[in-house]
Specification:
Blueprint: H1 2-17, E1 29-39, E2 42-50, E3 57-65, E4 75-80, E5 98-100, E6 103-104, H2 105-119, E7 122-129, H3 144-147, H4 149-161, E8 170-176, H5 178-188, E9 198-202, H6 210-214, H7 227-234, H8 255-261, E10 277-283, H9 290-304, E11 309-314, H10 325-336
Parallel strand pairs: 4-7, 4-8, 8-9, 9-10, 10-11
Antiparallel strand pairs: 1-2, 2-3, 3-7, 5-6
Helix pairs in contact: 2-10
Length: 337
């Protein structure tokens, strides 16, 4: 009986601490595993990342496009794709989101953007995660801002190892959907406003408020996520993506955990980035909650005094507006200018 009681106590303790909330966040260590290797005219690197609060090595592959020869170099731009981040930003090798026979619009538009940026003197760095940046180890005490240590650590490595330092060379990042979520955590939890000159967020960050995403709040019903969306969030807390997790079940006993681990919270994180331009672009009729979370995030930065801030709304319902000619032109202009 005593043994059963002890097991029950230990189980309840584990349940209560699962997804432990951290009050400070530290970068990990990046290790070059291979590269640079030729990748169809670009350079590929494999990087291993170990973070102090995570018990595994997360791997990322970088695809680096160099500035055109003979030009004055203008800087480096990182590109993070959506979902778990296991695709190239330019959707290379996929046939998703077709708009006509054989047309792969994300790939068509994104390849053009990358080529034009390189022709203007920028180094482009696409990031592809092996496992997924927000996929927690099953049953581990992990959560989204804790897992964002991996992209934050990787960005620091790129800045130190691939970005030639000079006052007139910009260091920037682009993130789509949950790629924008990566950027949001990197700014608020890892103080990387001092690292980036510009961050461009597309259809996100879509986890601005995890509390309103997971528990329906009458004053913010537009931020409440779908069941599938909530199951995706559960991956970041160590649960399966099958509807059995704490967010999918709207577990109100975890409200404080959700409140403190969203990008935007009422705690001591900074949302004022005086030296970083934050550019957000969304589609007017995007059916996902990403557009609404992006608005909420923008409003918080505006209230906090971030001076270099823009919010662009494009017509249509595309969750990937840069896959359209108008969206691609807007993003390209933001980065070039």
């Amino acid at each position: 009986v005593a043994g059963i009681f002890l097991l029950a106590v230990l189980f309840n303790t584990w349940q209560s601490t699962r997804g432990r909330i951290h009050d400070s966040y530290a970068l990990g260590k990046s290790t070059l595993l291979s590269g640079p290797d030729d990748c169809n005219g670009e350079l590929c690197y494999e990087i291993g990342i170990n973070c102090p609060a995570l018990d595994r090595t997360e791997k990322a592959t970088l695809r680096v496009g160099l500035p055109a020869a003979g030009l004055d170099e203008r800087g480096t731009i990182l590109f993070f794709s959506g979902w778990v981040g296991d695709l190239w930003w330019d959707w290379h090798g996929t046939g998703d989101e077709t708009t006509g026979p054989g047309e792969r619009q994300p790939e068509i538009q994104h390849k053009r953007i990358l080529a034009n940026l390189q022709a203007a003197g920028f180094r482009t760095v696409q990031v592809k995660w092996e496992r997924g940046w927000f996929v927690a180890s099953p049953g581990k005490q992990e959560n989204p801002p804790l897992l964002a240590c991996t992209p934050a650590t990787l960005s620091d490595w790129v800045n130190r190892e691939l970005h030639p330092p000079a006052p007139d060379r910009a260091f920037c990042a682009v993130g789509h959907s949950n790629g924008a979520t990566e950027l949001g955590y990197m700014l608020s939890r890892y103080d990387q406003g001092d690292l980036f000159d510009l961050v461009a967020m597309e259809s996100g960050p879509n986890w601005a408020r995890l509390d309103y995403s997971c528990i329906r709040e009458p004053d913010f019903p537009e931020l409440f996520n779908t069941r599938n969306g909530r199951s995706t969030i559960d991956l970041a807390f160590g649960y399966a993506n099958d509807g059995s997790g704490i967010c999918a079940r709207q577990d109100v006993s975890r409200l404080e955990l959700f409140r403190r681990t969203g990008i935007v919270s009422d705690y001591a994180w900074s949302y004022n980035y005086p030296d970083t331009m934050v550019a957000i672009m969304v589609s007017e009729d995007d059916p996902s909650v990403g557009r609404r979370h992006a608005e909420h995030y923008h409003d918080r930065l505006l209230k906090s005094g971030t001076p270099l801030l823009r919010f662009d709304v494009l017509p249509g319902e595309n969750h990937l507006p840069s896959s359209t000619p108008a969206g691609a032109e807007l993003l390209e202009n933001i980065l070039l200018n």
